[in-house]
Amino acid sequence: MSRELRIIPVEGLPEVQEGMKLGQLIAERAKLERGDVLVISQKIISKAEGRVRRLADVEPSKEALELAKKLGKEAELVELVLSESKEILRAEQSILITETHHGFVCANAGIDASNLPADGTVCLLPTDPDASARQIRSEIPETIAVVISDSFGRAWRLGQAEVAIGCAGLAPIDDWRGRTDAQGRELTATAIAIADQIAAAADLVRIKDSGVPAALVRGLKRHLTAEDGPGAAALRRPPSEDLFR
Amino acid sequence: MSRELRIIPVEGLPEVQEGMKLGQLIAERAKLERGDVLVISQKIISKAEGRVRRLADVEPSKEALELAKKLGKEAELVELVLSESKEILRAEQSILITETHHGFVCANAGIDASNLPADGTVCLLPTDPDASARQIRSEIPETIAVVISDSFGRAWRLGQAEVAIGCAGLAPIDDWRGRTDAQGRELTATAIAIADQIAAAADLVRIKDSGVPAALVRGLKRHLTAEDGPGAAALRRPPSEDLFR
Q1: How far apart are CA A81 and CA B178, in angstroms?
Q2: B4: nearest CB among A8, A200, A242
Q3: Considering only residues 119 to 178 of chain B, which have any Cβ-Cβ distance to chain A shorter than 8 Å?
Q4: Is residue B173 within 8 Å of residue B148, measured between CB atoms?
């Protein structure tokens, strides 16, 4: 059985300030229905959680100064990237790819400067995006799932695509391994990153200059769970299985 | 401005045989509207284009026999992977990652055995998926876009996500570089892989054992183009910019 899916932008949110309860704010404005997946852009989560930094307040280390010079980047930004990372994977061609303390592999540890109200500020990823998703889910009276999304580059493809950096109330992977296809043949390598595909889908209704930081995805009840579940942490490939460091 | 998006499964397609005109078949069954994006699973494109192979017909080379032994894979499958590839990137932990002749980096050169009618057969990627997308688009009277999708693994994330391996009538990348955010600040690194996100979104209405190989994504007119355009080839990162070989 298949059914139609709807993706509905959440509009009319105010400029998000530190300390705002995003779940409440969204529940007041969006027509949430039981079984919806609420996808929220990382940027407003970080703003609400006070993860915005003024570059002028950052004191670059010697390592950051050297790396910044090599890459042609601001030393203050590089210092923040290093402080948010546990390992540098690549630092070349003006590109800095690290593994964050959460275990995400991405450019600049997910730090960026777009869609922030003040010049000279940048936004860090939430400290624990799965906890952020659980918190927001708990603020919403309807039984829904929450995905927190951010755009990541990909090793072998141009352009960025949204992925889930946090989720709650959703099975992040739909694992068909051991189950069978339409012909009854075993599916050997089919584990679908549902949470990432939901993040990508929701982005299609968000236009980058429109200030629409959230969307509802309706029609995915079969993927929702009563419990918060393992979160997007379950989508991180363990370093021991990583062939591309 | 943002607007709602709908994703509608295309149901009732017959089992696809070599030589079938998929564009016509789908146009007869789906209620296509001007501006829709028709997303089609690679598997039925390959079937229609005669890209199914019987493993028993394959004669493994010495290289294939050795690699198969090392990886614990069937030598006939490895032979097909090698013949579809221009470079092996990784061959370890039972995993074979190559760059295909098209320039896609994926496991087993995109060859798989699920959802095929006969035991002992496997399905290769279409020879030129952008050409396949253009052909299907030309068979459909409505002005629409076509995306051909396949599920690829990702270097640092578990689970597969659908990506566009072919497209026509769509700008595959929405490039905001040089444009400005909601605060008028320049977006420096925002190029969104729209075609990949559309492929991922469409997969959310396809359940792997349901035999639903196509879906319509409605509400993306702003990304459609009059011309076929550069296709999904524009999403391949050139080897010179690839930091992860």
Answers
A1: 23
A2: A8
A3: 119, 151, 154-163, 172-174, 176
A4: no
In angstroms, what separates the C-alpha of A62 from chain B's closest C-alpha?
25
Q: Which residues pair with B191 in a beta bridge?
A: B175
Q: Minimal CA–CA distance to A105: which of A241, A237, A243, A240?
A: A237
Find all residues with CB under 8 Å of A88, minimum gap 6, and list them.
A82, A96, A97, A98
- At A189, the pLDDT band (50, 70, 90 cuts) reads low
CB-based contact, B62 to chain A, within 8 Å: no
CB A218 within 8 A of CB B67: no
Nearest residue of B to residue A179, measured between CA atoms: B209
A159: DSSP letter: S
Q: Does A105 touch chain B (CB under 8 A)?
A: yes
3-class secondary structure, A236:
strand
Which secondary structure element, helix H or strand E, spans residue B79, and what is its range?
Answer: helix B75-83
In this structure, the strands spanning A37-41 and A214-218 are antiparallel
Q: Is B5 part of the contact surface with chain A (CB cutoff 8 Å)?
A: yes
* 8 Å CB contact of B205 and A104: no
User: Which residues of A are less than 8 Å from B104 in CB distance?
Assistant: 156
CB A84 within 8 A of CB A124: yes
The ipTM (two decimal places) reads 0.95
CA A75 to chain centre: 25
Query: How do residues B42-82 score in pLDDT, each as one tens digit?
Result: 999 999 999 999 999 999 999 999 999 999 999 999 999 99
Q: Is A237 touching B (CB cutoff 8 A)?
A: yes
Contact A112, A82 (CB under 8 A): no
pLDDT category, A1, cuts 50, 70, 90?
very low
Q: Which phi and psi (to 5°) does residue B29 adopt?
A: -105, -30
Residue B219: predicted pLDDT: 96
Q: State residue B186's pLDDT score.
A: 67
B116 interfaces chain A, CB cutoff of 8 Å: yes
CB A123 within 8 Å of CB A214: no
